[in-house]
Amino acid sequence: MNFLVGAFKQPCTISIHFADGKTRKQATIKKENGQTALVPLFQSQENIAGEVWIDPLSGKKIEHLGIKIELLGQIELSLERGHSYDFTSLVRELDFPGEILDRKVYPFEFSTVEMPYESYNGVHVKLRYVLKVTVGRSFPSNIVAFQDFWVRNVSAPPEINNSIKMEVGIEDCLHIEFEYSKSKYHLKDVVIGKIYFLLVRIKIKHMELEIRRRESTGSGPNTYAETETLAKFELMDGAPVRGESIPIRLFLSPYDLTPTYRNVNNKFSVKYYLNLVLVDEEDRRYFKQQEITMYRLE
């Protein structure tokens, strides 16, 4: 993990090595250019330790004002032109002012780090954890290197997980009941339920179930929400009749889901919905949306 830092050629390379980098689990993340990368995976209260290697280029001497490493938790909002907010900031001093002639290796450790929020790459929000190494210089400028890592936190199953039962309809035209076996799901769970047609006087062509994710930022009149449809699952193709019952069985594991995030650091929320959609022969759409809670079990 070597990084040549800066737009112009710097007098050294800085690399950050995690102590258990060869054995630690990796998370696959999507970069801004659309490509994917593997980064180390952590959870809250773990130790984050390793070494920083600084290698001067051949024949170069680095005079510095001190070297430090920071562990930062940041939230970036694209609607605020990439401005970032630090919700976690820890620092370790690695070296006093001096000079570097050959490779120097600096061990570092951040013990039982509180990382309450999961890493997240959304439409307009990015929550990231990063190690930042700074070699202080008076001229021309500091030398800085970054190393991202990913955080996922598991939750215990909810003690109470009520079913969802609702009735929807159009007066004298359509009356249905739908039922989901529970309202809280882990990321590898299965949505199980039934739909009952109590009254059908319009010609339904087909019916589908959507998984929607709504990412919202800001508050009050300045709230901005972005909704993505992550999945569409066909429940029925053809006209139902009164008294018919349609089963629902939707596996969540194939989809790129995260837990529900509620008011993360007063900056953003991520919520999930099951959206039942009926389409009639004139392509009119009738739908009913119901929020569900997602959590990470393992």
How would you explain this protein's 3D organization?
By secondary structure, this protein is mostly beta strands. It contains no helices and 23 strands. The strands form five sheets. Strands 3, 4, 7, 8, 11, 12 and 13 form a seven-stranded mixed sheet that branches. Strand 18 and strand 19 form a beta hairpin. The N terminus is likely disordered.
Which terms would index this structure?
mainly beta; six-stranded mixed beta sheet; seven-stranded mixed beta sheet; disordered N terminus; 298 residues
Radius of gyration, taken over Cα atoms and rounded to an integer in Å: 26 Å
What letter string, H or E per element, gives the SSE order?
EEEEEEEEEEEEEEEEEEEEEEE
Query: What is the overall shape?
Result: elongated
Q: What percent of residues are in strands? A: over 45%
Measured between the Cα atoms of the first and last residue, the distance is 28 Å
Structural class: mainly beta
- The count of DSSP E runs of length 2 or more, i.e. the number of strands, is 23
- Report the sheet with the most strands, covering strand number, pairing sense and barrel closure: 7 strands, mixed
| Helix content percent band | under 10%
Mean pLDDT across all residues, rounded? 90
